[in-house]
Design goal:
The complex is a heterodimer of chains A (about 160) and B (about 180). Chain A is an alpha/beta fold and about 160 residues long. Chain A contains five helices and five strands; from the N terminus they run αβαββαβαβα. A three-stranded parallel β-sheet of chain A has the order 3-4-5. In chain A, strand 3, helix 3 and strand 4 form a beta-alpha-beta unit. The radius of gyration of chain A is 17 Å and the shape is elongated. Chain B contains three helices and eleven strands, in the order H-E-E-H-E-E-E-E-E-E-H-E-E-E. In chain B, the strands form four sheets. A five-stranded mixed β-sheet of chain B has the order 1-2-7-6-3. In chain B, strand 1 and strand 2 form a beta hairpin. Chain B is elongated. Chain B starts with a helix and ends with a strand. Classes of the chains: A alpha/beta (about 160), B alpha+beta (about 180). Chains A and B meet through helix 3 of A and strand 11 of B.
Chain lengths: ~160, ~180
């Protein structure tokens, strides 16, 4: 169900539901927090650069969490950093989304057993929408993760679901 | 340029009480063992003596020798009582192109070593790291705080051989 399904053939008029319009607006300009943690951040920057061009999906890094829609946890979340990540997440306005990028932030990665300083998955402090596997994931994988997130947002509804 | 043995003889002459041994039998560079509470005086001499001029501290690292009495607690974790913790100093003179390795061992239960951060400023952070991960107290250090682990980390010193990770930190589960 896309936005333009109910398009009339003439007069530049589009009829759609408010929900579809909002979802379309949200998923088309996901501003990310300008924030990177470890080697995955290098790959995230490569994704933002001209070759992979994150901007064609409306993703630009925003230097303030208060004006961002999505936070990409790109790298190893240490216990010391976890508290800061949580605070950044709490500073973002709703609706907000989280992409966990790479093995470290998914589950602790190579530090899962002997990493005395590593949080074993960022989902222990903030809720995650999309997990992107890889060590680090290639830019294509991060783009795929973003497309998955857009798909999720496209199907969101403002109506409270009845259980 | 001086060999390590020549430097040891110089030191032995001047600090007969605090410079104890010159070791060459290990498969590493020859090193000199020094009393932990006198290491700052020896280093000051190495730095200031015009024939030695060790103007660069290349590395300062802590080691848990784990040579104390080992026991197991109920859940099977190692507990080490007694023995030593060591600090290694790798010095180099850029002027004369000679190198030197110093080692000092201190009591594990009361690990105190004199700080050399007044001589080489870079030792400041190296000593903080050794304090953070091994709990070695550097006497007269200007700012001996944790440097890598969180300031409120209470579970001990992570690179000690009998370290046990805590179950929780600030409400976050630590083990996998």
């Amino acid at each position: 169900m896309g936005l333009l399904d109910k398009q009339f053939n003439s007069d530049n008029i589009v009829i759609t539901s408010v929900e579809d319009l909002f979802n379309w607006a949200r998923l088309s300009s996901l501003w990310q927090v300008g924030f990177g943690l470890a080697c995955c951040a290098i790959e995230m920057m490569a994704t933002s650069a001209s070759h992979y061009d994150f901007d064609r999906f409306g993703v630009i890094p925003r230097p303030s969490p208060r004006q961002s829609d999505v936070i990409i946890i790109s790298g190893t979340v240490t216990l010391k950093m976890a508290l800061r990540v949580k605070r950044l997440y709490e500073q973002m306005p709703d609706p907000k989304y989280v992409i966990s990028m790479g093995s470290c932030s998914n589950c602790g990665g190579p530090y899962w057993e002997h990493g005395y300083h590593v949080l074993k998955g960022v989902d222990r402090v903030i809720p995650v929408d999309v997990y992107v596997p890889g060590c680090p994931p290639r830019p294509e994988a991060l783009l795929e993760g973003l497309l998955k997130l857009q798909e999720k947002i496209r199907n969101e509804t403002m109506v409270k679901k009845s259980a | 340029m001086k060999t390590a043995e020549e430097i040891f003889n110089l030191l032995k002459e001047k600090f007969s009480g605090s410079v104890t041994e010159f070791k060459t039998d290990k498969p590493v560079e020859p090193f000199i063992i020094i009393n932990p509470l006198e290491i700052d005086k020896v280093c000051r001499f190495l730095y200031e003596n015009s024939a030695l001029t060790f103007d660069s501290l290349v590395n300062l690292s802590g080691v848990d020798d784990a040579n104390g009495e080992k026991t197991k607690d109920q859940s099977g974790f190692d507990i080490i009582k007694g023995g030593t913790l060591s600090v290694w100093y790798h010095l180099e003179s850029i002027k004369f192109r000679h190198k030197l390795v110093l080692k000092t061992s201190t009591d594990r239960e009361k690990p105190e070593v004199a700080s050399v951060s007044e001589i080489w400023n870079c030792a400041n952070w190296h000593e903080r790291e050794a304090f953070d991960l091994y709990g070695i107290i550097f006497l007269n250090h200007p700012d001996l705080r944790r440097i890598l682990m969180p300031y409120d980390w209470e579970a001990g010193y992570p690179l000690r051989k009998d370290y046990q990770n805590p179950e929780f930190y600030q409400g976050m589960k630590v083990p996998y």
